[in-house]
Amino acid sequence: MSTLEVLIPTHTPAGLDRIVAMDLPVVSGVGYVVSWQNYGDGRIPPPLAARDDIRIVKCDIPGVSANRNNALDHARADILLIGDDDLVYTPAQLKSVISVMDRNPEVDYASFRYDGADNKTYPEAECDLGHKIPKGFNQTTFEIALRRKSPAGALRFNELFGPGAPVFTAAEDEIMFLTARKHYVNMRFFPITITTHPGVTTGFRAIADSGVLLSSGAVIAKAFPFTAVLRLPLTAWRIWRGGRNTFFKSLRLLLWGAVKSIKVRL
Questions:
Q1: Residue 7: which of 26, 31, 43, 29 has the closest Cα?
Q2: Is the dihedral of CA 245, 247, 252, 254 positive or negative?
Q3: Which distant-in-sequence residues (6+ apart) come within 8 Å of 67 by Cβ?
Q4: Would 77 disulfide with which of 2, 5, 190, 199, CB 3.0-4.6 Å?
């Protein structure tokens, strides 16, 4: 049976309190790598210090993508599950990730489901992600599992994207997905729930941060280079109809993000 590590980014001394609150389950063959930014003079809480299945590694580079990459760089297990510091895992869910990857040794990048207030929609059946993206599919970071000793294991999050990045303050998950596809990584979706996210994720909230719209424009330009000119105004209209921002502000920032993405390499 393969081993699994859940890679969890967090920040500030209070971040480790959030890790404690997650009550990470003790499961044979499963470990946790916590990458800790802005740690200051914080100390490791006793409940974490007492666990030999939790490793805490410090990160001095800003941005959530850099934090995730730090965890990836320190990982040792066969399978790496991208996590977050506000999720709930069960032993059965973690074992299911190992089981899926062991039953499908040809798959290097697996995408799963999560439960949460978003009520996110997914493909109804298992499907390939490398050749054709299912209609309506969008990637969430903590749905991803990577086989460490494979081309997927060499992938890293683009540090120009994600919270804490200077311009593109979101979409690190979509850019990771597009990068994997560009490099012909063997990718597959499995309709299996692997975690619960209490509350609503940022992808379903009102867009107040201009960086989020810039990021969306960049993703559209990278994913659909030949039809982006049509998709950008359609996206702005949908954002307006959903009450998430005004049409013209959305369109302006989406277009600017698309232009700025020209220099982004996947």
A1: 31
A2: positive
A3: 9, 10, 11, 35, 37, 59, 61
A4: 5
Residue-wise pLDDT for 225-236, tens only, equals 999 999 999 999
Distance from C-alpha of 90 to C-alpha of 195, rounded to nearest angstrom: 7
Model confidence, pTM: 0.95
User: Tokens for 187?
Assistant: 């990718």
Task: Give the bridge partners for 4, in sequence order.
Answer: 30, 79
Output phi, psi for 30, to 5 deg: -120, 130
* 24: exposed, middle or buried (Cβ count in 10 Å: 0-12, 13-18, 19+): buried
Q: Nearest CA to 190 among 109, 106, 111?
A: 111
Distance between CA atoms of residues 38 and 63, nearest Å = 10
